[in-house]
RNA sequence: GCUGAGGUGGUGGAGUGGACAAUCACAACAGACUGUAAAUCUGUCGUCCGAAAGGGCUACGUAGGUUCGAAUCCUACCCUCAGCA
């Protein structure tokens, strides 16, 4: 069975199915991020209820805690967190390269040393020193046991010099070659095969992006992941980055956008350019800080980035967050009540908001899938992004 | 009524002669939130003018006093709390 079945294409936008040992993913799809084997504040059942099809967890975090041996006992992070569906893991490359909060960027980044062998970094938990290599990332991801895993790469930093970027770009290809080799070995003894995605770097540089994509295609990775800080940073920049390779994306392989943050604007641009799946932390992070997504029917649009701050609701606003949303939160609770929860730092607020935002994103993706199959994606795009 | 403690910005609470428009925290308001070290982070927060630097005005219960200078010292008054009656 192929990993990916293309059902229909409208322009470069495509609707398809990713087949995994743990079920299918109808694409285009939003993949909620469960870094530490939990999509923060929500249970696996709630993930299902909100229409989620898969979960993405992280090599870096789970390697540090609870550790590989613990996860091995559970036969993977999915059984550990009681998620039965398809899963992804990220390679840890991103964390190793960006182990910082923006505020502490300088001091933190100095704690990571990149060598040809791999990345030496210090644990954010206890300060202990670790070496993560492409081989080790594959071995950890083998234990984490996701259906779809990522090659170990070194994301480029826009802050660094051109030479350093070129250096990282070329090293990433060597690391991906090593990732591919180790993955090939490990698959031989696995019952459930894992699909390894090669990571395409290069930001908005057409030469670099195409070289990176050519490389990934040449090694014949089962899937293609698009990385870099230009993905998800801004809808236009995301579009620019994807435009460099959109015409060269193969129809037979799934394309994943790594870290496509933000709201519907960037997602429409990405889907329009052939992205099948993407993970996005802002859906749940914004929920926890009180930013709720709005449908066009609720007044959501480019002007307000499709979002509303819960703190600005009236305390006596009896209406649901959205009049058209069918999530548990909207079917049950009022804006005024959810505002009350946030104002008083009640944990339920973040939970209810997360449920709404995840449901919102999955509803949007379902509408996009349907639209592509009916050749109405352009119409939907215009309808959502009209000014 | 007596004894003791105390009255500071939206709130709690520092400050006990000059560096005070007043530490800090909370609230409020504004903003940010990319492969999640985020239920987090950043900014504003007496008032008026100014883009800013900066300047004016009013303020530490009330009234008066001492002093070059008072939220800080003195006097009187008002009020609050605790204990005793």
Spatial shape: globular
* Domain module tally: 2
**Mean residue pLDDT:** 92
- Unreliable sequence segments: 100-109
- Annotation, overall tally of beta strands: 16
State the helix count: 16
Q: Which CATH architecture of the largest domain? A: Alpha-Beta Barrel
Describe this structure in a few short sentences:
With 387 residues, the chain is an alpha/beta fold. Helices cover 41% and strands 17% of the residues.
Q: Keywords for this structure?
A:
eight-stranded parallel β-sheet; three-stranded antiparallel β-sheet; 17% strand; 387 residues; 2 domains; alpha/beta; RNA-binding; TIM Barrel; 41% helix
If you had to describe this structure to a student in words, what would you say it looks like?
- This protein has 16 helices and 16 strands.
- With about 375 residues, it is α/β, with parallel strands linked by helices.
- It folds into 2 domains: about 5-280, Alpha-Beta Barrel (TIM Barrel), CATH 3.20.20.105; about 290-370, no CATH class.
- The strands form 4 sheets. Strands 4-14-13-12-11-10-6-5 form an 8-stranded parallel beta sheet.
- Helix 10 (about 235-245) packs parallel to helix 11 (about 265-270), helix 11 packs antiparallel against helix 16 and helix 14 packs across helix 15.
- It is globular, with a radius of gyration of 20 Å.
- It binds one RNA strand of 85 nucleotides through helix 5, helix 12 and helix 15.
